[in-house]
What does this fold into?
Amino acid sequence: MKIIINSKETETASQNLSELATELNLPAKGVAVAINNQMITRAEWPSTSLKENDNIVVVKAACGG
Amino acid sequence: MTYESLNNTQKKRYNRHIILDGFGLDGQLKLLNAKVLIVGAGGLGSPMAMYLAAAGVGTIGIVDGDVVSLSNLQRQIIHATKDVNQPKVASATCRMQDINPDVKVIPYETFLTEQNALEIIQEYDYVLDGTDNFSPKYLINDACVMLKKPFSMGGISRYTGQLMTHIPGSACYRCLFPEPPALGNVETCAVTGVLGSIAGICGTLLSTECIKYFIGGDLLTNTLLTFDAITMNFCRFNFKQNNSCAMCGVHPTITELKEYAFKPCTKKNKN
It folds into this structure.
């Protein structure tokens, strides 16, 4: 299905957020993931299904100051 | 402090706040009575300290154990060329007092540690994070949640910035990022570079959050605001207080302050 990841249209076979995190090789710590501007806690990733045209944003924790 | 206790100079100095709808004399008096702690006198700390001093925040504590280096001056606008090799809190204190002699500045020439964080923070009404690595960011989060203190947390990297605000009962930084990234995944400004002016964007947003805490307005609680200076996109993301959060959840597992071991950006005299 077609989804948007960080503003880029992307084709994915992943059915849920957990599978997508594996597909994107997201690190275990220091990233948060939002679907349609709602952050999804890591515990909810396996039960969060992806839908066509979902707008996914991966935010890395920024430490600079 | 009351209106009568403002002298004529103060009435003139704060006139644009006093006449401002929704701010007024009440708001100004709240700022003059407020005690705010700024942790870090760098890229974010510079604009925060200067705007809060200008705004007339009555007591401003500033914590930093570093000295000014030449590579800081591209974005750390509170310091001047003559301040290189001097303690950051010294030049920051002078600059704030130059801007506004009303302000009582309390400098702490130290880094925030698990030993001193609670003692320093408990004296203040509001905490602003302007630190440059994850160790003090998590210390600020944990200490403020323990002490029930409100704070705003910010971070910048390359061309992007992010910030959030916590008040007691709202989501904390660990609800969003439960643990810092592995050291190998940490991008510091010293390694990747950073557009100097975004420290100003993020720092002024953070100081605006602080001012609004005292005078009223919607805060970035349960919200992460991110911006990207390349596209000029500002995005808001909602997040909830996480019941299983190790810090503020139903059964917190963090019950005492503990520093993370890495401090990639805190070397003295770095160039």
